[in-house]
Task: structure prediction
Amino acid sequence: MDEILTSLPADVAQLKPAQARAHFRAGLRTPTAGWCAGYTQANVIIVPEDYAFEVLLFCQRNPKPCPLLGVLEPGQTAGPLLADGDIRTDIPAYTIYRDGELAGTVGDLNEVWQDDLVTFILGCSFTFETPLQRAGIRVAHIDQGCNVPMYQTTRRCAPAGRISGPLVVSMRPLPADQISDAVRISARYPAVHGAPVHIGNPAALGIEDLSQPDFGDPVEIPADHIPVFWACGVTPQAAVMQSRPPLAFGHAPGHMLITDAHDSDYQIP
Amino acid sequence: MDEILTSLPADVAQLKPAQARAHFRAGLRTPTAGWCAGYTQANVIIVPEDYAFEVLLFCQRNPKPCPLLGVLEPGQTAGPLLADGDIRTDIPAYTIYRDGELAGTVGDLNEVWQDDLVTFILGCSFTFETPLQRAGIRVAHIDQGCNVPMYQTTRRCAPAGRISGPLVVSMRPLPADQISDAVRISARYPAVHGAPVHIGNPAALGIEDLSQPDFGDPVEIPADHIPVFWACGVTPQAAVMQSRPPLAFGHAPGHMLITDAHDSDYQIP
Result:
């Protein structure tokens, strides 16, 4: 592992996904923000086959919070999004849930893997934040060096069998004259949450205090900025856990799967 | 039934979907082309729960031929796309498959329904043919009063578990100066097959003779027209049948489910 860590370049943005995954496989635990520029980072949920149809259907019914990029079939550990990869080792850190409760955070799943496990790979908003920035739109949590603030809302997702839960949103404050551009640009990425679900008026989503997010970090909201809310990839993980599967895994927050897909693959005209 | 048939208006295009479904529920068997203008007609596949995850995953992996509009969970007979409807009776005619072989065509499923059956509702190209025509693009099979020609290709779909098969395409011949418009317009309807998968050169798809379609009817191809190929909703039905589920149902060809959704619901900007 030392050898690999020593060989880690100063600029991790230049790594190819397979190189990054090799570092994580060798034991490196680090958040992945800024790694492998231009490649798609993804949320991961892994559940037993008994829950697979319902999780897949939940994603189909709630495509904005649950944008599915790929599924590994029962027991599969590699696939098109991670060629020559291994889903059990190639994420920097994993959460383990038992009966829906967090039971630990680990560096790999080698000890706990089962052959009936089905892996769901879901888009994340990293993919549209780069094009927002390229268009001159400042992303507050990136400027402020913290995680995006996320809020549980009073809006319900469409349930699927045993899987149900509230919509979780992420929030980026924007000046009035950039909101249209942010809508237009993020709408071109429907595979990674797409356009905002709500603009302004947090109370209408049941959010009482923007300074107290349910997940992530609060951001300062500059004067005359309006909170803009996107559907968030925490939604499916929260809903699946509420159904209390005997065993489930996720990526640890901020420690994403870096896939072989290019962000540009998910842009529509 | 007589009463309902007597009350059938001369112009079935003006009926609401619930009214049309009531006629079919009462026993009317008729192709649905031209019914309920502006409302979305759909392909239907019904399989036992044992096959549901794989069929859903096949659709997720092959969204162009298998654009999923909705799924009824095991045993469910109604849902958002057919409010107060009944999937067992509200299609004018159904095909029954046993072990993947056609075992009959019936007017309803009341006698053969099982509580473990899962219904998949998929978009159909009727939805984008109307906007093509509104843009001045002639649709050959409509002009010629026949069914669209469909061809089995040598291109394989992404398999999912036991479900695999070739891509099936529909073909509309177009003049060179209208192909861009046809691409642009159909691309705005990704939920109903979206943009063409192939333009010109049928041999590259393994199609030897356009005058001999595998399904539907041949159309005359006007001089200087180029064959344009769209992914076709026959694809999933053919693939599911190849996996030989003990029991499965579909809509009879041309006898579609008329849903409560509006075609415009599926248009993206």
In short: The helical segments of chain A are 2-6, 17-25, 52-61, 126-134, 140-143, 179-187, 234-242. The interface with chain B takes residues 49, 52-53, 56-57, 59-61, 68, 71, 73, 160-161, 187, 190, 268-269 of chain A (CB under 8 Å). The longest helix of chain A spans residues 52-61.
